[in-house]
Amino acid sequence: MKDQIEISTLMAGIGAKARDAAGELACASAERKHAALIAAADAVWARRAEIIAANGKDMDFGREKGLTAAMLDRLLLDEGRIRGIVEGLRAVAEQRDPVGEVIAEWDMASGLHIRRVRTPIGVIGVIYESRPNVTADAGALCLKAGNAVILRGGSESFHSSGAIHDCLVEGLRAANLPEAAIQRVPTRDRAAVREMLHMTDAIDVIVPRGGKGLVGLVQREARVPVFAHLEGICHIYVDKAADPEKARAVVLNAKTRRTGICGAAECLLVHRDVAATLGQQIVDDLKAAGVEVRARGLKGSVEAVDDDFGTEFLDMKIAAKVVENIDEAIEHIREFGSGHTEAILTADDAAAERFFQRLDSAILMRNASTQFADGGEFGMGAEIGIATGKMHARGPVGAEQLTSFKYLVEGDGTLRS
């Protein structure tokens, strides 16, 4: 009970500071936010050895916990990935500031002039698992949109996230912005997560980024509104009109480039007319690359069972199935997909249009790897996650998606009759 009281006191203090910081950030100039992000990027690069050393502690912790190779890859930071964090911070810094943007503007016959203008949401709570780069992405995007943020990273990335967070605070300090604008929950205690979910007085929205267990917990228990980022059960459908060379390369990339990210392909669907030829070639390519193909209607590594469809493997595994036609592929995706990302490989415009019209996942692609399901690849600099819900934010959640709006109404002594 004493520990719970201490966690409650800790989180209440963090929430109060975040709410105060949000009030100041809402009025901060674009120039100061830009300066903070550039200074943070410089700090990350200057302190990269310190960050890599902290990450080493997390990697040891992850191995002791028995994390899979894919999960350890999500956790790993090396100089190349730190360079990516720096580039992401700089990219967000250089983006157009969304705060104050006029979304729409019109005049009424009554004499009123009305503007709908972007405004910060307020305080964002971000709960995420292994990937420490989310610390930088979430902090940067929330700051760009004028929001204060409370970051609660996974226990596996505790030290890495702390080192990156220190750099973000250094950036805030350099730009004379409140250090409480980007706060990190300084404990692995899971009670802090449950506390965040109930902080309706301090937090305006929660963004969970992680596996089904985390997202399910947040959706079940949160009293604060949630931008849901559900599983990435991404499908690739190989149509009978697919270009063989392109299809083989795209599927291999979609599965194997990084298996532990939410944009990795988890299910391959192949039109029966090309199953014995192109479909089998693709399966053989995957097997040669070390992927366990759990197949139905194709010669895979093992025979697929029902539970393989609708599973997010996040590993060198993929489900594969032959379908009669594009409509059966669409029905399969509707049944087993998570609303994240689906791709069709085809040279047939009509087939692609049918796929796009009849599916309602957040991201639909044609002749491209699902690994492009990423805010950075969409020109957002970074993302907090891929929102699979349909309210407010959907798809990659960047700075613009982390704003709300208000109406500014001007009259001239205007009276309503």
Number of domains: 2
Q: What is the name of the CATH architecture of the largest domain?
A: 3-Layer(aba) Sandwich
Mean pLDDT: 93
Strand content: 15-25%
Poorly predicted sequence stretches spanning 5 or more consecutive residues: none
Task: Report on the architecture of this protein.
This protein has two domains: 2-229 and 397-409, Aldehyde Dehydrogenase, Chain A, domain 1 (3-Layer(aba) Sandwich), CATH 3.40.605; 234-372, Aldehyde Dehydrogenase, Chain A, domain 2. The chain has a seven-stranded parallel beta sheet, sandwiched between helices. A four-stranded parallel beta sheet has the order 5-4-3-6, with helices on both faces. It has helices spanning 2-25, 30-46, 48-65, 69-75, 79-94, 133-144, 158-174, 191-197, 212-221, 244-256, 275-288, 326-336, 349-358; strands at 102-107, 113-120, 123-128, 148-152, 182-184, 205-209, 234-238, 265-271, 292-296, 302-303, 317-323, 341-345, 363-366, 386-387, 395-396, 403-410. Helices cover 42% and strands 19% of the residues. The protein is α/β, with parallel strands linked by helices.
